Amino acid sequence: MTKSAYHHGDLQRVLIDAALELIAERGPAAVSLRDLARVAGVSHAAPAHHFGDKAGLFTAIAVQGNELLAEALAGAELRDMGVRYVRFAAEHPSHFEVMFRPDLYHRDDPDLLAARARTSEVLRAGVPGGADQVMLAAWSLAHGFATLRRTGNLDRLLGGHDAEDAFRELAGLLRVRP
What we know:
- The chain folds into two domains: 11-52; 55-171, Tetracycline Repressor, domain 2.
- It contains ten helices and no strands.
- It is mainly α and 178 residues long.
- Helix 1 (11-26) crosses helix 2 and helix 1 (11-26) crosses helix 6 (93-99).
- The chain is 67% helix and 0% strand.
């Protein structure tokens, strides 16, 4: 993680960015508000002022992640939505790591609930007929593929082929009836 003293601007964004970098390097367990304060060059109380506690920081990351995911998926049809989901996981690994770990954040946070609802609306909009079972199957496939890819478990199976192309082919095996 690069050390840079915070002088002015959006401290909350600086702290989230530093946390995302640390999560990418060492995982969520390595994050502490005290370490983030040190990296930002602020008092150890500053992160607590913005987030309350570590779960508050992870809640902010989950909110941001859901907003980014909803934006990435918006307007896509079902198969392309899955490809975009897989791409999101690769481009935002720290958000992805936190978003699906409810043990890390405040599940009842109003901002988080609103962001998750928005993501669900976008997902549902891409499903023919808005069928819950189709949405669940598509999400499970995309999430499983994205998770396996992130953890390196598809490397051998992909054999150097593009992961997004491989997902398109896999998704093509599904027969979705409107």
